[in-house]
Amino acid sequence: MSEHELRVSKIRSGTVIDHVRAGQALNVLTIVGIDGSEGEEVSIGMNVPSDRLARKDIVKVEGRELSQEEVDVLSLIAPDATINIVREYEVVGKHRVERPQVVEGVLECPNPGCITNADEPAATRFEVLEDGVRCAYCGTIVREGIADLIRE
Ligand code: CTP
Ligand code: ZN
To answer: Which CATH architecture has domain 102-149?
Structure first.
């Protein structure tokens, strides 16, 4: 995309989560725990044209450098995402998200009988499989629609 077509402004310092699967930008924000209530400056592009993907979402967070741990969970819903760390307008770091082995406290178990859904719910814990996630407490496996399990 040429410069005059830039849809979402460049940021000064922070994190750009690029090449997010189209339609997943809001889930990305939920996962990294940003809802704007703390005054964070966030820009979102949805379904923007991309070279690598037919369409992509993009999320830019000013003033926050997200840690590897925070972003790796994104691989479950945005496996092609690129994390760009920006300082003084320059990209100083770029890496792909990596599949974590375990995801804690981010997803909700779909099994209503699971101990994590009891009156005093325990923190959730899922093992990451090649093609899905498995609840460490009740063994429920979810392969499709992992984004629907994201805790609001
Ligand atoms: N970006 C930004 N603000 C900056 C610098 C970069 O918002 N000050 C964004 C760019 O718009 C782009 C992403 O961060 O979406 C990565 O920037 P860059 O590495 O310069 O772009 P590309 O080379 O196109 O990245 P890639 O090869 O990962 O597609
Ligand atoms: Zn469970």
So the answer is: Roll (2.30)
